[in-house]
Structure formats: structure tokens, C-alpha cells
Amino acid sequence: MIPVSSLKDRAVALFGLGGSGLATARALLAGGALVTAWDDSPASVEKAAAEGIATGDLNTADWSGFAALVLAPGVPLTHPEPHWTVRRAQAAGVEVIGDIELFCRERRRAVRRPAFAAITGTNGKSTTTALLAHLLKVGGRDVQIGGNFGPAILGLEPPKAGRVYVIECSSYQIDLAPSLDPAVGILLNLSPDHIDRHGTVEHYAAVKERLIAGVEAGGTAVVGVDDDFSRAIAERAEATGKRVVRLSVQQKLADGVFLDGTDIVESEAGERKFSFSLKGIGSLRGAHNAQNAAAAYAGARALGLAPEVIAAGMASFPGLAHRMEQVRTLGNVLFVNDSKATNADAAERALTSFEDIYWIAGGKPKEGGIAPLRPYFSRVRKAYLIGVAAQEFAATLGDDVPHEICGTLDVAVARAAEDAADDAAKATADAAATSKLQAAVTKLQPAVVLLSPACASFDQYRNFEVRGDAFRALVNALRDV
């Protein structure tokens, strides 16, 4: 735990008693703050009170006595309208902040300020955060990882010399961190998202930009430049004198880190300083993961790791659960858990990463369904449809993709595994009859049973993690073929 000493002996209102809210309350109490905590959920209030956290209805509180309102990131700050606690705080002239802000204040109070890398972006935050932490651990660093991914930031170990914090930051968290000042700030990409919470895409982008604008003096801003918003942010950061490292998976850069074929290349003044290949690293398949790898490379370099150490660390990265997670290979069939793909945009990344796909899709559908994925249907050998979306997806696939409605995940896994194994065995036998060399090549290119639902899970599972866990269990129960 990181005790919050910056609010010692001061009255603090705290709203939102989920996981991060409870961690924040504990940290404030450990630092000597006088906390009054509340939540719209009576069960959450009861749980906090059982832990000894002072609770009180903030509707009836005297707000003039509070030094701050600490708001959980899931509670609306501005849109669709400010939460009632925010209005009460604003009326009383009380600052509204979150747990990332409290961490930043404690970091600045440390006798020797520890390193701090903050990662944001519309897509890829969690993988980049996990990958950067992995690289630093390979390099022998004392790493703490958390924030929007993993443990709540104030539940991590306290600051000390030599420690490195690798923190994923959502736009909600950044909005509540006015003095966010990482040593390394990473912005991967920007596309319209969370408009219900930010009002417009322009406001959403402006919130994300704060992470880059706040990079401390002497620090490094790492920015993907493959979208217009991020490219402009990089230019503005550079204009203020910040050190900016640009990233691209779409173009070669004279200065920066970019993808060239399967190689990640670090370039300076038009010359290649270092490169390494992502070929064969299953956990980093696809252009989206190449961007994550480029960002983690740039972040690790900014934190002092040698490029050779980083390249070695990339090869040993295990990947994240539910994000193109390689569960198991049976015979010549690879099973991949991409349960985190809850919409078509996310599923597209998986479909572009494989050939010969036996695709398990469906669940609670999102607007637009899978129609945007039509350009990738040629990669799908057959689709196995589950959940509420099954009939809708079948209509979209039509005659373009062989498919069957399985209804539930257990049926889909069994049918996909059987079909993939039969087709893979036939392909290998056909190749062997033609050429031993071709047979060897075929074995290096397995068929893929891919759970990438392009749907929410809530029709059959509590969340995408439970759905992914169920897929993993079903795959691990399959007999070797």
C-alpha cells in the first residue's frame, strides 16, 4: 500500500467503493486523512464499514470542511452530466481528484523520486503496460504494475529509490489527475471512444493529451503517429520542448520506432540504430501488437534498458489472458482465446493475424454486428455461432462463410476442434503426398480455433474474463489428436 500523506489530518470525501475506491480509502487512512466514504450501493457501503472505513451520506455532509473529493474513475465527472457529488464539491470549492493524482503527489514527496511510466491510448494499453513491465523485469528492475490494469495504483508498494511504476491510465483516470507527471508518457493511438463520458471525440483526445503534456522535465513522450489526433499531439509536445519519440506501424520514420515487415526498427537521423524481429513471437502477432511492441521498446529505452536486453525480453513475453492468448496446440491446431474482443473493431485485429480460422463468435451483439468484418471473411474456414447474436451473425455471413449455430460455447469448441483437426490432418496428408518439404511447411502453419466473439458476454457470462476462462477450460479438457 502507498499511504497518502499529502492529506494527513485533513477531511476527505470519497465516493465510489469498488476495488480502486476501497484501495484508495485504505491508503488515505494509512496516511492519516479523515475519510468519509460513500457509494450509491448500500452493499458497497456495508463492505467498507466492515473494514473500519468511516462512511457517511455525502448528500447530507457539510462540504465546506472537505479538502478534496476523491472520485472513483467510473463515476461521471463531466458527461453525460457531473455526478451529484461533483456538483456538491464544485459548489463548495472543493477539488475533485482521483487515485492517480494522489499517487503523483506521493511520488513528488518521496526523498528520491522513483521512475514512473504512464500508458494510455484507445487500444493496446493493457498489453503495452504488461509488456513494458515484463521487459523491465527481464532487465533486473524492481517493477510495480497497476492502475487501470491490475492492482489499483494505491495498493502497490510504496515509492523508493530504484523502483519503477508502470501504470495504465484510462481517460477517466487522467481526467481526475490534474498534475499527472510521468517520467515516460506513452500514447499509443486515438479513435472515437467513451463519447458518452467525454461529450465529443475532441474532448476525449484533449483528456488523453494531458498525459503527454504532463511529462516531467527531462522525461520522454512516446507517441504513435498513425492517426491524426496523436500526430498533432506529438507535434504540440515537441513544440513545447519535450523529447518526443514517434511510433508507426504504417510508415518508416527517420526518427523514431517503426515496423518494417516483421522487424521493429529504432531510427535516428535516418539511420537504423537497432532492429529486432517479431517473427515467431506468438504473443505479439498482428500490426496492433507490433505497435504495442514498438511502444514498449521505446519506453524501455527511455528508462535505460539496452536494446539487446529488450529484444530478448520480447521473445519471452507470455501475452495477456483473453487477448489473443495462445491456450494450447493440439496436433496441428492452435487454440486462441481472444474473449476480450467484445466488438467488431477488436475482433478485426485477431482476424487479420491468422489464416485458416475456425471462428467462434457471438454473444450479446454490439451495434453494427460483424458486417464491418466482411473484408476478412475469406480468412475464415468456418464460423461457430453462439449466444443471442447467433441468428443475426448467420444472416451476415450468409453464403460467404460456412457456419453453424452452436448456441453455447461448449458445443462450439467441440465442433470447431473436430473440424479443424480433420481439415489439418487432410491438408498435411495431401501435402505429404506431394512433397515432404511442403508437409513440413504445412505443419508450421497450424489451423486456428479462434474465440474472438465480437460481442459482449452478458447473455451467457458475467464478463469476458469468465467467458475466456470457460474457453480455456474446454480447450484444456480436449484429448490430444
* Helix segment tally: 16
Please state the second-level CATH architecture of the largest domain.
Answer: 3-Layer(aba) Sandwich
Structural class: alpha/beta
What is the CATH level 1 assignment of the largest domain?
Answer: Alpha Beta
**Main sheet summary:** 9 strands, mixed
Radius of gyration, CA atoms, in whole angstroms: 24 Å
Q: How would you name the CATH homologous superfamily of the largest domain?
A: Mur-like, catalytic domain
- Which runs of at least 5 residues are low in confidence (pLDDT < 50)? none
Q: Tell me, what's the shape?
A: globular
Number of domains: 3
Instruction: Write out the strand line-up for the largest beta sheet, numbering strands in chain order.
Output: 6-7-5-8-9-10-11-12-13
In what range is the share of β-strand residues? 15-25%
Average pLDDT? 94
Number of strands: 21
Protein architecture, described:
There is one protein chain. This protein has 481 residues and is of the alpha/beta class. The protein folds into three domains: 90 residues, Rossmann fold; 216 residues, UDP-N-acetylmuramoyl-L-alanine:D-glutamate ligase (3-Layer(aba) Sandwich); 152 residues, Alpha-Beta Complex (Protein-Tyrosine Phosphatase, Chain A), CATH 3.90.190. Helix content is 37%, strand content 22%. The chain is built from 16 helices and 21 strands. The strands form four sheets. It has a nine-stranded mixed beta sheet with strand order 6-7-5-8-9-10-11-12-13, with helices on both faces. Helix 13 links the parallel strand 18 and strand 19. The model has no long low-confidence stretch (mean pLDDT 94).
